[in-house]
């Protein structure tokens, strides 16, 4: 009797790739995540790998489920927290502190292949514990989010964390970046990825199949937030460097038809 594989199979792997035989990967309904609405026609799992941040604010990155495209930013902390509590905003990565240090030329050696890296800017890394994943909130698992791996790479300081998020079929999504002041950790605002001037991307998920890195997603937090003793946040003008939060998407999984294997495979 022939065996069948009826589970999800890797079809692309910019970050991690597992392949069975010489199966032809099915086409994705959306080959690029981009910064506008994301919509797949099959349940699709995408891996996200974060490498570093270069913003003065403390940040968190995540997914907006069933977004209202007309709302491109949220400036009220209560509203933002309610959206997270209701599962509309799902964090994938958070910074535990705004940054580790000011980036030096020595740091640039570790990040020399990344065009978003800038000497003299604030630097947050996985190795120093500034960046971590959000796969659980307390003892509760975050829906649709799975931890994949952590690669500390202590020798060169360029550690990474990878998580996987499952996009449900026919459900619209956007990304978001939430920001907090470096002093007093006061909420500043969150940006949706369709906010002009907040996010950019380069590459696509399809390119991952050919061994390229995948799709880079990078953010501009639009200015450092300074907590004023009078009780409000002042914003320093934006430097528009689009390196405040940088990550890569790849390693895509979709539901595929059962694959018949030869009888001699066990």
Please name the defining characteristics of this protein.
mainly beta; 266 residues; globular; 9-stranded antiparallel β-sheet
Question: SSE layout and pairings?
Answer:
Elements: E1 4-5, E2 9-10, E3 44-53, E4 58-65, E5 73-74, H1 77-85, E6 89-95, E7 101-102, H2 105-110, E8 122-125, E9 131-133, E10 136-137, E11 140-141, E12 145-151, E13 160-167, E14 173-180, E15 187-192, E16 199-202, E17 215-219, E18 225-227, E19 233-235, E20 245-254, E21 259-260
Antiparallel strand pairs: 1-21, 2-20, 3-8, 3-13, 3-20, 4-6, 4-14, 5-15, 6-9, 7-8, 10-11, 12-13, 14-15, 16-17, 17-20, 18-19
Give structural notes.
With 266 residues, the protein is mainly beta. It has one domain. The protein is 6% helix and 38% strand. The relative contact order is 0.28. The model is unreliable at 1-25 and 256-262 (pLDDT under 50).
Q: How many domains would you count in the coordinates?
A: 1
Give me the secondary-structure category: mainly beta
Mean pLDDT: 77
- Cα shape: globular
Contiguous helical run count:
2
Run of helices and strands: EEEEEHEEHEEEEEEEEEEEEEE
The radius of gyration over CA amounts to 19 Å
**Strand fraction:** 35-45%
Cα separation of the termini = 11 Å
Provide the helix percentage: under 10%
Low-confidence stretches: 1-25, 256-262
Sheet of most strands: 9 strands, antiparallel
Number of strands: 21
Please provide a brief summary of the model.
With 266 residues, the protein is mostly beta strands.
């Amino acid at each position: 009797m022939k065996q069948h594989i009826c589970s999800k199979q890797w079809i692309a792997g910019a970050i991690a790739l597992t392949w069975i035989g010489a199966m032809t990967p099915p086409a994705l309904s959306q080959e690029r995540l981009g910064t506008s609405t994301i919509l797949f026609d099959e349940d699709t799992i995408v891996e996200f790998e974060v490498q570093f941040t270069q913003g003065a604010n403390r940040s968190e990155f995540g997914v907006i489920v069933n977004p209202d495209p007309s709302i491109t930013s949220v400036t009220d902390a209560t509203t933002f927290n309610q959206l997270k509590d209701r599962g509309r905003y799902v964090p994938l990565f958070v910074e535990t502190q705004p940054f580790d240090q000011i980036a030096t030329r020595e740091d640039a050696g570790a990040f020399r292949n990344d065009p978003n890296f800038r000497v003299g800017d604030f630097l947050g890394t996985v190795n120093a514990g500034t960046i971590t994943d959000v796969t659980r909130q307390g003892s509760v698992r975050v829906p649709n989010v799975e931890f994949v791996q952590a690669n500390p790479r202590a020798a060169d300081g360029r550690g990474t964390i990878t998580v996987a998020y499952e996009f449900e079929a026919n459900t619209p999504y956007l990304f978001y970046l939430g920001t907090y002041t470096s002093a007093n950790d006061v909420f500043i605002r969150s940006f949706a990825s369709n906010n002009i001037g907040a996010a950019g991307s380069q590459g696509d998920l399809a390119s991952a199949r050919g061994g390229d890195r995948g799709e880079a997603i990078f953010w501009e937090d639009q200015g450092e937030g300074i907590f004023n003793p009078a009780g409000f946040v002042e914003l320093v003008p934006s430097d528009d460097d689009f390196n405040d939060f940088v990550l890569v998407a790849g390693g895509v999984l979709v539901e595929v038809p059962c694959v018949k294997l030869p009888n001699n495979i066990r």
